[in-house]
Design a protein that fits this description.
By secondary structure, the protein is an alpha/beta fold. It has helices spanning 27-40, 72-92, 110-125, 135-141, 169-182, 226-231, 295-308, 354-371, 384-387, and strands at residues 20-23, 45-48, 64-65, 103-107, 131-134, 157-161, 165-166, 186-188, 193-199, 202-208, 211-214, 218-220, 240-249, 259-262, 267-271, 277-283, 317-327, 334-337, 344-348. It has an eight-stranded mixed beta sheet with strand order 5-6-4-14-15-16-13-17, sandwiched between helices. It has a six-stranded mixed beta sheet with strand order 8-2-1-12-19-18.
């Protein structure tokens, strides 16, 4: 007899109305739904996903988590989020394969060393464990590193962040979906939002390809597609959507026990529990919604990795994929509610930090949606900061992404 598989979150029929509609079935939307039900008793919630749970950025990343950002606003949020993972895994009773392996960011110039020194001091001020290492100490942590002067950009030192690590991205999405559904949240896959209804400055519903839905509260948490959804009601967001490519090598015996990254080489890498090297590159330099991959980045990754760690020469890549990063000018997210449209909330612009921030942001967003009062932790990320000329200091120098979408 064929085995009948039971969905972790079911296939509920679409109702004509909900107290809250969340657009986006990634970890931000699912976490918000879960905490709405768990902490605030708001269970009449619909999560609307155009494809399937975890299809977008939640399932198209290298699953690294850390709390070594530059700005104090981001640092405190990510530190709290990093501490939340073990508790959430136990609470959901779902193995997300959390591997607390630590994160090593390499520096290749005196300027980079100075920048890392400032990050380390800031982190330590807020109680986040980080330390500045010289080149020899970096090699003690990762023996495969070449710290000679033969490199194009020699390694001068690095920032070591022991609390960082990795998770299994699919498992995070599945665990949150299972937990939310168990508390009454309805998850509707393969349902596309085609319109937002606004009357007299207030949200009244959403239009989907499976029928209209009445609701007084809508959260847009659709990653790179959030700009398109906000555009349905005339909101222009200072976001450019840029693809990021990543790839996986053939499995090899364990040798890389930490996440290693280099801004100069635009490469980051860790070894999975299966022995594969999981590695990502910098963003594509042009805005697009495509997730196509290119030979250029395979070549780039191979050259960068083998220069930093010559032992990898001859290793073969097995798979490559791309995800969309919704980048703001200051590399910090946009979180907004009831402004300028009552009942409309935004959670977007996370760039390549979205996976790391999912559950903790969802926890605070749930409070925001339930009470209509913005939590202190989220206030710095208002869209109005761009209008008021006070961008956050997550990047060292301004980045010109061109005109807004």
């Amino acid at each position: 007899m064929p085995i009948k598989l039971k969905s972790l979150w079911g296939k509920p029929p679409l109702k004509s109305g909900y107290d809250v509609v969340i657009i986006g079935g990634g970890i931000h939307g699912l976490a918000t739904a879960y905490f709405l039900a768990r902490d605030h008793g708001v269970k009449d919630v619909a999560v609307i996903e155009r494809r399937f749970v975890g299809y977008g950025g939640s399932g198209r990343n290298t699953a690294i988590v850390r709390a070594n950002q530059r700005s104090q606003e981001n640092l405190k949020l990510y530190d709290e989020g990093l501490k939340l993972w073990p508790r959430l895994i136990a609470e959901l009773d779902f193995n997300m394969m959390f591997f607390n392996c630590g994160n090593l960011n390499l520096a290749h110039s005196e300027a980079a060393i100075s920048a890392l020194r400032l990050q380390v001091v800031t982190a330590q001020f807020y109680g986040v464990i980080s330390e500045l290492l010289d080149a020899r100490q970096c090699r003690e942590i990762v023996p495969a590193l070449d710290i000679s002067d033969r490199l194009t950009y020699p390694i001068l030192g690095g920032m070591y962040h022991p609390p960082g690590g990795t998770l299994r991205h699919d498992a995070v999405a599945w665990g949150l979906a299972k937990g939310a559904a168990a508390k009454g949240v309805r998850i509707h896959q393969y349902t596309e939002v085609t319109g937002l209804k606004v009357e007299q400055g207030r949200v009244t519903g959403v239009v989907t390809d499976n029928g209209p839905i009445r609701t007084p509260r809508v959260l847009i948490a659709a990653g790179g597609y959030s700009t398109l959804l906000a555009g349905l009601v005339g909101l222009r967001l200072p976001i450019h959507v840029l693809p990021i490519q990543a790839m996986v090598s053939q499995p090899v015996k364990p040798f890389l026990h930490h996440v290693v990254s280099s801004g100069a080489y635009h490469v980051y890498c860790n070894q999975s529990l299966k022995g594969e090297l999981v590695t990502g590159a910098h963003m594509d330099p042009w805005p697009t919604y495509t997730t196509n991959v290119t030979a250029q980045y395979i070549k780039h990754q191979a050259e960068a990795l083998t220069e930093l760690m010559p032992v990898l020469k001859g290793l073969r890549f097995m798979r490559i994929w791309a995800g969309l990063a919704d980048m703001t000018p200051d590399m910090a997210p946009i979180i907004q509610g009831n402004d300028p449209i009552e009942g409309l909330y935004l959670d977007c612009g996370w760039g390549y930090f979205g996976f790391k921030s999912g559950p903790i942001t969802g926890k605070y967003l749930a409070q925001y949606l339930a009470t209509a009062e913005c939590p202190e932790a989220l206030k710095p990320f208002t869209l109005r900061r761009f209008e008021q000329g006070r961008p956050l200091g997550e990047i060292a120098t301004p980045i010109n992404y061109g005109p807004w979408n």
